[in-house]
Specification:
about 550 residues; mainly alpha; three-stranded antiparallel β-sheet
Amino acid sequence: MKHSYKTSGILSALLIFLTGCDTDELHDLNIPLNAVNMDVNYFFTAAELGTASNGSSESSMYADLRTNIIMCGHCIQQLATLNTESPGTGDKYLNYIEPSIAPFELYFTDVGNRTREILRKTEPGGEFEGRKINTRHAARILRVLNFHRLTDWYGNIPYTEANRIFDGFLNPAYDKQKDIYADLLRELDEACTGLSSDNMDEGFAAADIIFRGDISKWKKWGYSLMLRLAMRVSNVDQKMAAEYVTKAFQGGVMNSNADNVWVPMSLTPLKTVNQNGISRAFQPGDGGQNSFLSKTLIDWLMGPDKNDTKDDDPRLMILSGGIAQWTTSGWTAFPDGTDPLKQAGMPNGLDQPMLDAIYGKPVLDYKLFSRVNPKLLQSDEPYQLMNAAESQFLLAEALERDIGTGITGTAEQYYNEGVRLAMQMYTKYDISLAVTDEAVNQYLATFPYGVAKPALEMTGEQMWVSKFMNWWEAWSDWRRTGYPNLLPVTYSSNITGGTIPTKLRLLPNEASVNPNYTTGATMPDELTTKVWWDGGPE
């Protein structure tokens, strides 16, 4: 395998959203990036789709399947499985490399190349210098999102020299995570300042399938990312954190579900093109991911009193579709399977013999445990990259920890608003998933901020549940905050000594091909090593 972050990549029929492109035109796009002087609008749409794990090949789904779902969704104990092969990696901490390497292979190749090409063409001296200002700055925000995720997963990575094979960087050097974060925050600062509604690029609104050229929403997203990155380093560099928390608040972060970042998907003849990768991973007959909701999540959603629904989280029967069998013939709920009081999560760390031993007889998992709601898993569901609830929770945490200056309001106000936004964002999937203001108010009254539990613990738990399906981000939040308090599993053949993984491993080819791996990567390159912002080496 070649270095994924050096290859040219392919631009394929991902761009069906672009107005005015017929089938022949799209076919002609299936060529290397360096082979034609193509308009950056095409690259921009492809970068947005690739960011949603819907890149130019079948491997795009695998980043969601293997890493977001198999590794992170199970590590973070929102999903559970009896599987002892690769799908058991995050559930039992088993020795399979695919969940670790999938995003490294995808994001360097796909979005990394797309955004790098946009920046090259729009930089001083480039052919679009001064003509694609908003495209350039929006691409910088996309690039920040993807590189911050990559460094969060792996620690030190190629950054400064990444995606620059044609500049002579055949074996790109690894940058320290601390340096990467400093540059990512600088990039966001410059990008948010540079975006301008007074200077709209030709074709930008049509190419932008996320916000359709709405500069105010791009700015809110950029400042919300700035807030996330600033708080992510807050345990190891409070000076950097305080500076950018202040800038993010002053710039204006997302504060409404209308600001949420969704990449639209669509039904197409080819499942590798524009269909939601998370949905495909769960649907029977395609991905068929045999995972259930975990006991940790279901118990949390059901509240302390499992015999009364009054203390249930309103999201219980939004995230759970009930106890049911899901085959290619359809979804069939078992008797009482949709009763909130009957919901049951699968314990993490079990295999089939262990489950049979608990019940004293052979049992079928799909008759016992709650599944992810299929209303969240249609092929054309939009793919959420970030939501406004996170910004509210982060502001609440920043106030509690006295990070940043000039933040008006109280931590409780931001927490309460975060809970409201998180509970009410699911109508994007289906209107039946609405949660009323009354239901939110009842929940907040049942579990008052800082009373039911310590304030920071409540905030951390709410961020955890608000990132259902964005499991790799929930995993990063848990590593930083320590919330919720998860009990690791001790499956017999685990490779972590019974501890929850804290880093992904780099692909084996890096060690043998790139000489910079040995001296530059975060070492030891194991699942139990911590990245810099988690207390590991710079």
